[in-house]
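Bug #77: duplicate submission created two jobs. Keeping one. Sequence:
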Amino acid sequence: MLSFPHRYSKSPNIPTGFQLETNQIPNAQSLNGLLSKCNLQTHPAKQLELALQKSDYCLSIFEEVSERLVGFVRVTSDKGLNANLWDLAAQPGQYQEQFLTVLINRVLRIIRRDMPGCSISIAAPSIAINALKGEDFILDPGGIRTMGFQIR
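Kept job's structure:
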């Protein structure tokens, strides 16, 4: 998916009892736990820790009382033309779509501020489609399809 946003949407609210963090990166075990709960691909811990360290930005949503990770997305970029969103996930349940909307909205604001002009791509779970469309993402623009390669 690619986005060519022309507007800023209103910032969605985070539900009471949860906190968005841009400076607190979760550990690989916590992130893999969230990815697993969302039926998304998990990663070897050592490789995931390295990916988290090498990412340009990581946004996490934590439950305030338990400090449990309930939402996540990270950004990598060449800081010129392209930014890629990875590991977009939100805890299944009552707030899942709201968490996804918050993560996408906030990460796009950061990219627009710090990397203006970058095209933005993401491979996302189907639950995130509405949140992505709400931010003007276009599903497979011009018939462009992505391909992935799993490094082992």
